[in-house]
TrEMBL record:
PROSITE patterns in the cross-refs: PROKAR_LIPOPROTEIN
The protein, known as: Lipoprotein
Amino acid sequence: MKLALLMGVIVTFVTSCFTSGYDAKPGVPKKDQ
């Protein structure tokens, strides 16, 4: 159970990093969020 929860958190974190990277460059504030 703990492993599944940990994997879920990791996947969510990595996905958010990729999506934020595609939407805007690092250090540049997003216009719409």
